[in-house]
Amino acid sequence: MTPITTNDALIAFCERLAKAPYITVDTEFMRETTYWPRLCLIQAAASPTDAAIIDPMAEGLDLEPFLDILRDESILKVFHAARQDVEIFNKLGAMPRPLFDTQVAAMAAGFGDQVSYEALVRQMLRQELDKGSRFTDWARRPLSDAQLTYALGDVTHLSALYPKLRDRLQKEGRLDWVMSEMGAVTDPALYDTSPENAWKRLKPKKFNAKYLAAFVAVAVWRERAAQERDQPRGRILKDEAIDEIAVQAPTDPDAFNRLRSAPKGFGGSRLGLELAAELKRVLADPEAHAPKLERPAHNQPAPPSVVELLKVLLKAKSDNAGVAAKLIATVSDLEKIALNDNADVEAMKGWRRQLFGEETRRLHRGLIAVVEIFGDQERVDLLVQANVDHQDEGAPGGVADQLRQVGMAQRKRAQG
Question: Are the C-beta atoms of residues 41 and 151 closer than 8 Å to each other?
């Protein structure tokens, strides 16, 4: 088994890929000690019997013919757990659209939360994968036969798996659900690495100008330093250090050495000197450098008991529909729905609203009940219709009344 290392061989392979309605794609990369992922292999298949490994580390190899395939919107690109692969190709200027992620699809097809590739192949193709080469050094050359066999198997099995998964979703009327999720995976904003926006991925804990100016400055400086040195962010500064530095606002390099979260000796290092100078600059006029953020309103916290009831409802709807609960709603969604049954969250939009969101509104109004059945095996029987007209949460059949009934059942079970 020989990887593609020449331009002629790559062009010939890409000509075959261009004729396929869909291709399967995977990558092997290293990034444990770097900021930027180091692309070591690209695997692609036009069918289970027509696949190849491309060696992007081969001297003189031009990847453009393959990148053009990724840019071709007439060809569907199939990945499993696509995000890190897409990050790599996006940086190379080839966002793979349209895209199908079999991990997301499996969540909609009844395989649970974030099912592994091995488990999906085992369940759908009745084959076992040898993952012995998974954590090997993909940058070392030459690659062993075991490594190449493992790498190629990822796309040949995926090529056989995709049509089965697609047909299953189509039969269940869920293919459109999955395709609607793919836009988020190929949104360039998800892969934005501009240092100026680095602070937006973090959560500031204060909102005064001095803190925010320092917080943004440290986050931007860390991102730029990590990129320039090609080191992971955490090797420059941990996230918690950004908050502590913003609180203490040190402008003297020696002051870094008195901070709990700063690396030992940071104040005397070149990095410490750079950061101290940057902080001194922005803190000379914090109002000019602080972003304009509104302090979050101190909203009433979501009632824990209502959130728990919504979790029961979510589990029941998830189990009954065979869709992973994580794909339907997050805990944050449930907390917002507990306060407002028409909250502006993903769980109250599109197919999620049809499957789950509308039932949360009916639950709020006491039009349905969640009944827990306890026996040898604990389970949830959902949506026993309640013949009530009450809109009051505390009225018979309302949310609070349901919670009292569930609590009584739980106490009765505990008493034996």
Answer: yes
